[in-house]
């Protein structure tokens, strides 16, 4: 039961992440197009067709820059996840060693106190 719930929770989280990613992507596309149209509109000496071409090229460049930045952030996130996972595993191992050493010392103290009596 617990395993099924955990799997369902993960699937739900993945679906929410996918929807959120889609919405963020659409917002970025809309923002890029709006910026492109604003930029092209300021070039009043261009014809309408030229303004549309400038807006299209600007939006493509802006979207490409956003994708590049997003990929860089995603790559860095994966690097950090790997680094922190390794640190966490090292910390868990250290804590296990301390726990085992503490048990060994406690056991030897108990044994020593019984043999002294």
Structural descriptors:
117 residues, mainly alpha
Question: What features would you describe in this structure?
Answer:
The chain has 117 residues and is an all-alpha fold. Helix content is 93%, strand content 0%. The protein is built from two helices and no strands. Helix 1 (2-41) runs antiparallel to helix 2 (48-116). The two termini are 52 Å apart. The model has no long low-confidence stretch (mean pLDDT 91).
Compact overview of the structure:
This protein is an all-alpha fold. The chain contains 2 helices and no strands. The two termini are 52 Å apart.
Layout of helices and strands, plus pairs?
Layout: H1 2-41, H2 48-116
Helix pairs in contact: 1-2
In helices, the fraction of residues equals over 70%
Rg: 29 Å
Strand content: under 5%
The average pLDDT is 91
Shape: elongated
Low-confidence stretches: none
Q: Note the gap between the termini.
A: 52 Å
- Number-wise, the strands total 0
Report the major sheet.
none
The number of helical runs is 2
The run of helices and strands is: HH
Question: How does the helix and strand content classify structurally?
Answer: mainly alpha
């Amino acid at each position: 039961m617990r395993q099924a719930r955990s799997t369902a929770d993960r699937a739900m989280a993945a679906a929410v992440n996918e929807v959120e990613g889609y919405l963020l992507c659409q917002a970025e596309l809309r923002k890029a197009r709006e910026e492109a149209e604003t930029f092209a509109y300021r070039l009043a000496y261009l014809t309408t067709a030229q303004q549309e071409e400038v807006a299209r090229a600007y939006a493509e460049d802006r979207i490409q820059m956003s994708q590049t930045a997003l990929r860089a952030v995603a790559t860095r996130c994966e690097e950090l996840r790997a680094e922190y996972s390794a640190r966490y595993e090292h910390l868990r191992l250290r804590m296990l060693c301390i726990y085992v050493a503490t048990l060994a010392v406690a056991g030897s103290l108990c044994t020593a106190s019984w043999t002294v009596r």
